[in-house]
Specification:
GO terms for molecular function: symporter activity. By secondary structure, the chain is mostly helical. The protein is 79% helix and 0% strand. The protein contains 19 helices and no strands. Helix 1 runs antiparallel to helix 11, helix 8 packs across helix 9 and helix 8 packs across helix 17.
């Protein structure tokens, strides 16, 4: 990597950035994220049913843990995909890397949807399910980095925060769509039909986006070779140290982010399995939480373009830290719709805002020639280590302690670590935004 930081003697070429991002460009760039988190969200919503189909066991806890373990298997190959597809995006282009990733993940979700049950083909069922998750993990590993780099590079400097915020917003859109599908299926089908084949319908709906997504991505303009505004000349060694620092802080913040995300995505299973509420209320919990997350993600990016990156990371994170335990205590004690929908919705809204500012800050802090690969690799390792284990850990904690507040404990630890890393993040906003934010701040 060090050779990539050799001094450059070429004079910077100044080219005016695009005035705006069209809706088709944003959708084309983020449709892979939409499918990714639709699939991931759908899997967690139907983790109990998938466990019964592929991992039947006399103990329901064992069946659920095997199902969640298969969910986590997809994280094992994420770092491999991040290195392969991320570096490919830095060498060849963002568009071909994003297109390859989308094609592979679509094929994997289709394979999972049509895999016969254990009762039909025996041990082949869980093996095929695990293989599909491994392929999808490889594809997803190379999705987020190139997409984030693409959105940042395609946007004007003063709107990068809002542009990049479509990355986390697309995740929330997908999770909302998955929860909405789950809600509709739970209302329209009997519990027996939902267990038998309802979850397959949800996956097939996601796989149906393949032709549309490939068409959108094939029409995207390339941003890799588009010149950027000149940056101050920095010694190679200092640049390398800065990138290493950004990578270390980014790993901690992304770990915090993914634990927060996957615990909130787990709330449908948590509400059904631990709180014993009705299926429509359980699906509605995640639906409402994800729906407010869409607005929070876009708000975070919009605010980062006006107040700078660090302020929008730090203060909402403090608020989320203070809210976490009281919200979960309210949910566990009351087990009411207002607590599940209102309390979790408010926590998700506040907790999502800081991460849009972080996404653009990290993308800005990485040199363009390694931006896609570095972002993808850091993200993939954070997700693989902490995302793939979040839900099994929470399930295990609830099981061994018998305490329904276990998710709050894990979320608090993760959020506190993320907050400490945010305090050490440099401000990467363009000088005009930093200057405007300084003028607006009280003296």
């Amino acid at each position: 990597m060090a050779s990539q930081f050799a001094p450059e003697h070429r004079k910077p070429i100044l080219v005016a950035p695009d005035e705006s991002l069209t809706g088709s460009v944003v959708l084309g760039a983020t449709i892979g994220n939409i499918l990714e988190f639709y699939d991931f969200g759908t899997y967690t919503f139907f983790a109990i049913q998938i466990g019964q189909a592929f991992f039947p066991a006399s103990d329901p806890f064992a069946s659920l843990m095997l199902s969640l373990g298969t969910f986590g298997a997809g994280f094992v190959t994420r770092p491999i995909g991040a290195i392969a597809l991320g570096s490919y995006s830095d060498r060849v282009g963002r568009r071909p890397a994003m297109t390859a990733s989308f094609a592979m993940m679509s094929a994997a979700i289709l394979a999972l949807a049509v895999t016969p049950s254990y009762e039909t083909i025996g041990i082949g069922a869980p093996l095929l399910a695990i293989f599909a998750r491994l392929v999808q993990g490889f594809a997803l590993g190379g999705e987020v980095g190139p997409t984030t780099a693409y959105l940042m590079e395609a946007a004007p400097a003063e709107a990068r925060g809002l542009a990049v915020s479509f990355q986390p917003a697309s995740q929330q859109i997908a999770a909302t769509a998955g929860a909405l599908v789950g809600e509709i299926l739970s209302l329209a089908m009997t519990s027996e039909a939902l267990d038998a084949y309802g979850w397959r319908i949800a996956f097939l709906l996601g796989a149906g986006t393949l032709p549309f997504g490939l068409w959108l991505r094939s029409a995207l303009p390339e941003t890799l070779h588009r010149p950027e505004a000149s940056a101050p000349v920095v010694e190679s060694a200092k640049r390398l140290r800065a990138v290493r620092r950004m990578a270390s802080l980014g790993l901690v913040i992304l770990a915090s982010c993914t634990i927060f995300t996957y615990i909130t995505e787990y709330m449908t299973t948590y509400a059904l399995n631990t709180l014993q509420v009705s299926a429509p209320l359980a699906f509605a919990t995640t639906l409402v939480s994800n729906a407010v997350g869409i607005g929070a993600a876009l708000l975070g990016g919009w605010l980062a373009d006006r107040a700078g990156r660090r302020h929008i990371m730090i203060w909402p994170q403090v608020t989320a830290l203070l809210m976490t335990y009281p919200v979960f205590w309210w949910i566990v004690e009351s087990r009411s719709a207002i607590a599940l929908l209102g309390g979790l919705g408010a926590l998700t809204f506040i907790g999502t805002v800081p991460y849009s500012a972080f996404y653009v800050s990290m993308a800005e802090g990485l040199p363009k020639n390694i931006r896609g690969g570095a972002f993808a690799t850091i993200y993939a390792f954070a997700i693989a280590i902490f995302g793939g284990t979040a839900q099994p850990i929470v399930t295990w904690l609830i099981h061994v302690t018998g305490n329904a507040l276990a998710p709050a404990w894990y979320m608090l630890v993760a959020s506190a670590a993320g907050f400490c890393a945010m305090l050490m993040m440099p401000e990467t906003a363009p000088p005009r935004i930093q200057s405007a934010a300084h003028k607006r701040s009280p003296s």
